[in-house]
Specification:
5 helices; single chain; mainly alpha; elongated; Four Helix Bundle (Hemerythrin (Met), subunit A)
Length: 163
């Protein structure tokens, strides 16, 4: 899908990057047999996902909540905004439970019992974030293109890039 605004294009690229990471993460988690300890390859993907969850996802959500959602709500897209805000809250709660386990995994300090805790949280997180990304790509980004004028788009796209 082609988007008109720089803001939508940037968010779309972040969505594509996140989907690729989540696909790799989900396949890696699912590939560890139950009762096993993940190998060193898992530590690498756990580190990547932990870094993304701790930084990039929060940054992306804050930008949407502070810069885009108020504009969209003002343009009559309040139901969409409410839905996406609720999904942000749910994803953030799952991420808060998952992050300590990811940090342990990223240092290779995750035994079979802790991996058994991580597995369902990781799969839930990946499933929720993937569904959320698809919803944003289908509904949020076209709405952003419809609402933002060129000057506002430049202003907030630049602010986002600098933050």
């Amino acid at each position: 899908m082609d988007f008109r605004t720089a803001t939508s294009r940037k968010l779309d690229q972040e969505h594509r990057d996140s989907l690729a990471m989540l696909d790799r993460f989900g396949r890696t988690v699912a590939g560890v047999p139950p009762g096993s300890v993940p190998d060193e390859g898992f530590a690498s993907i756990a580190k990547t996902v932990a870094r993304a969850v701790a930084g990039e996802v929060g940054h992306h959500f804050r930008f949407e909540e502070e810069q885009l959602f108020p504009r969209l709500a003002g343009a009559g897209e309040g139901d969409l905004v409410d839905l996406l805000l609720e999904e942000h809250r749910t994803i953030n709660r799952t991420a808060a439970d998952l992050l300590p386990l990811l940090f342990s995994a990223s240092t290779g300090r995750l035994d079979a019992a802790r991996f058994a805790q991580l597995r369902p949280l990781a799969l839930e997180f990946a499933e929720r974030l993937e569904a959320h990304i698809h919803k944003e790509t289908a509904a949020l980004l076209p709405a952003v293109d419809a609402v933002l004028d060129d000057d506002t788009d430049r202003e907030i796209a630049l602010a986002y890039a600098e933050s």
